[in-house]
Amino acid sequence: MKKRLFDGIEVHRGSGNVFADLGLANAEKRKIKTGLVIEIRKAMKNHGLTQQEAAKRMGITQPKVSDMMPGDFSNLSERKLMDCLTRLGYDIEIKVRPAKAGTGHLMFAVA
Fold it and tell me: Is residue 3 one of the residues assigned to a domain?
């Protein structure tokens, strides 16, 4: 992480993954799941769905949708979150290609 001073305060430039910057376990997985949940919340808002309507459309229970709203989505896998998005009308594309370095990385991008 790059550091610099800003108005006398030491500022660190993040890596792009706040979970990794905080030293949390499974940082890449957390970043991806968080990105998927953000998109689910946007889709619900754009479609004007209640939690009950969204749950039915996504094929999960309303309590799971309720848990997801403040950020508790530990009970849902990445695959299930992707399934929820496709049921809400999103396309999901996964690209696999050789890494430029010796070790590859995961990246989540929203178009």
Answer: no
- CA–CA distance, 90 with 74 (Å, rounded to integer): 22
Give per-residue pLDDT as tens, 53-76. 999 999 999 999 999 998 888 889
The count of residues in the chain is 111
Indicate the pTM of the whole model: 0.78
Token pair recorded at residue 25: 């376990």
**Secondary structure of the chain: what % helix, strand, coil (to 5)?**
45, 5, 50
Q: What are 6's two structure tokens?
A: 């800003």
CA 97, 99, 100, 105: dihedral to nearest 10 degrees?
120
Instruction: Output the six-digit token pair for 62.
Output: 């309303």
Say whether 105 sits in a helix, a strand or coil: coil
Structural domain total, the chain: 1
Instruction: Judge whether 72 and 25 are in contact, CB under 8 Å.
Output: no
Q: Which domain holds residue 47?
A: 27-87
